[in-house]
Design brief:
Elements: H1 3-18, E1 22-24, E2 36-38, H2 40-59, E3 64-67, H3 76-81, H4 83-86, E4 88-93, E5 100-102, H5 103-116, H6 120-135, H7 139-148, E6 165-168, E7 172-175, E8 183-186, H8 192-196, H9 199-205, E9 212-221, E10 236-246, H10 251-268, E11 276-280, E12 290-298, E13 301-312, H11 314-323, E14 329-331, E15 336-338, E16 341-348, H12 349-360, E17 361-365, E18 374-378, E19 389-393, H13 400-411, E20 417-419, H14 425-435, E21 439-443, H15 445-450, E22 452-457, E23 463-467, H16 471-479, H17 482-485
Parallel strand pairs: 3-9, 19-20, 19-21
Antiparallel strand pairs: 1-2, 4-5, 4-6, 7-8, 9-10, 10-16, 11-12, 12-13, 13-16, 14-15, 17-18, 21-22, 22-23
GO molecular function, one term: glycine-tRNA ligase activity
Family: Belongs to the class-II aminoacyl-tRNA synthetase family.
Subunit structure: Homodimer.
Amino acid sequence: MSKQTDDFFKNVISHAKEYGFVFPSSEIYDGLSAVYDYGQLGAELKNNLKAYWWKAMVQLHENIVGIDAAIFMHPTTWKASGHVDGFNDPMIDNKDSKKRYRADQLIEERIATYEADGKIDQAEQLQADLDAALNADDLAGLKSLIETHNIVCPISGTKNWTDVRQFNLMFSTQMGASAEDAETVYLRPETAQGIFVNFLNVQKSGRMKIPFGIAQIGKAFRNEVIARQFIMRMREFEQMEMQFFVRPGTELEWYQQWKETRLKWHLAIGGSSAKYRYHDHVKLAHYANAAVDIEYEFPFGFKEVEGIHSRTDFDLSQHQKYSGKKIQYFDPEISQNYVPYVIETSIGLDRLFLTVLCNAFEEQDLSTAEKQDSRSVLRFHPALAPVKAAVLPLTKKDGLPDKAREILNRLKLDYNVQYDEKDSIGKRYRRQDAIGTPFCITIDYQSLEDDTVTLRHRDSMEQERVATSDLEKIIRNLVDWKNLLVKL
């Protein structure tokens, strides 16, 4: 990461805390590693991102429905899914700093360094060597790559490494009225299994016909050892997943379709297409016959924000085997029973949040020959903006606050709107720019005479005089969900 991009990312993190988007969890107790809280504006932005995904996935598709499965599941669920035996990451410790790292990520960072330094041949060769080691589950090979390429611990600066070993990522706890009767249960490491075990319930109660999908938004938990890159990798995070059930033999066609559909969804938010790319998996999970990541170019490099996987019939077949229940679908078109194949789209909401934040954040120099000036602005798509409009009386007297609150009370029935009367109007504009508010509505003395206000636009900073009776229509035309959904 160059100094410029490093500074940009530090500024994004600082801005997120200063304006109430993201806080370190339990900060008064010095925080908890890899755990964060979403502040008042962060919660609004998260809710808007969830609404956008849900509308695009469920509302726009007649054959996709949503559920909300429990976090706790019968422990056999995780035996069937393979998480008990195989949900591991290759970890390596530095003996001097006592810090633990994911071996593959240390190597990926060295690849990124090679690329940044223009050493493309070395980057490509190391990537090929990494892929080969991962495919072969060659833990000794991973350590050899770390040593050969002189990868040091970021804390101690030494190469005093342990061997690479596998580390299970699931959190476990006890469920039961007494210690003697307690059963080991797990905090779910993904939301997908809650969909699979409800396949028959949803299919029968909803009279669903293949192909159809089940969507879910929910918390998942992984005992991530590496606490870096802000909210990129956390122990408690939120997923938005959709499992799409299809007839065997058609899965790769659907896989290609969902791959294209999901990238279009990301681009509709307003990010540059140059910042997104597909990354095909070289090493496929044991259940998959095709897999790709949609990656976004963060300040620290391209990282996954969404995965699209063709999971075959592995999940339903495993649950059929372990539960002893028949989990099949009778297809009237071909008069045949079968276990459906599955195409999965899985997006990390927290990573999406960071993507949107990085996309939107901009520090502008507005200086002129006469004076120095600048602003920090979040250029959120208006539909996603936490606050849609700010109502600002020019002064605190002469009836202007009363007029302003009259407008506020009308707008807040439909939109999240803020009222602010503190400081100069210029400072208030800058505050709203910093949180991404698309509109500022200023009430002045002319407003009392002709019922008009000054409407200021966030991106252009242009101002226009409009009638208060037109405000709702103007705001609606810009922030309506239709502006995003029609692009899909």
